[in-house]
Amino acid sequence: VQLVMESGGGLVQPGGSLRLSCAAAGNIFKIYAMGWYRQAPGKQRELVATLTSGSDTDYADSVKGRFTVSRDNAKNTMYLQMNSLKPEDTATYYCYIEGSGTVRRGEYWGQGTQVTVSS
Fold first, then answer.
1. Which residues of the chain form beta strands (DSSP E)?
2. What's residue 35's pLDDT?
């Protein structure tokens, strides 16, 4: 059973925007922290953004000022708004949710969504 589901990836031109979504299944109803990682072919996984239960955010230097992480508590969903996209942002993006509910407290991951920035 997939407890974390991502959507919103795709192909976009440089300078364009995309919004990724990360939804927690109903089994997870207490969230402690959330975040996004990305991994490009041949590169190490990179932490992109984090969001705590207290709404504190942190970003990788490479995306500061361009990406914004946010959360809709009513929908148990996190978003990553990506603006001014660059070819180097091309990667598979993964979200994680540290949460608990009918499942034990743990870190749950999405399946990944591909973002390609190319003209």
1. 4-7, 10-12, 18-24, 28-39, 46-52, 57-59, 67-72, 77-82, 91-101, 106-109, 113-117
2. 96
CA-derived radius of gyration, the chain: 14
Q: Residue 30: what pLDDT?
A: 87
CB contact burial 52-72 (16+ within 10 A = b; e otherwise): eeeeeeebeeebeeebebebe
Tokens in use for 112? 């990944």
Give pLDDT < 70 ranges for the chain.
Answer: none
- Dihedral sign, Cα of residue 44, residue 33, residue 111, residue 20: negative
- Nearest CA among 110, 102, 103 for reference residue 34: 110
**Longest Cα pair distance anywhere in the chain, in angstroms?**
45
User: 56: which 2 tokens?
Assistant: 């504190």
The answer to whether 95 and 20 are in contact (CB under 8 A) is yes
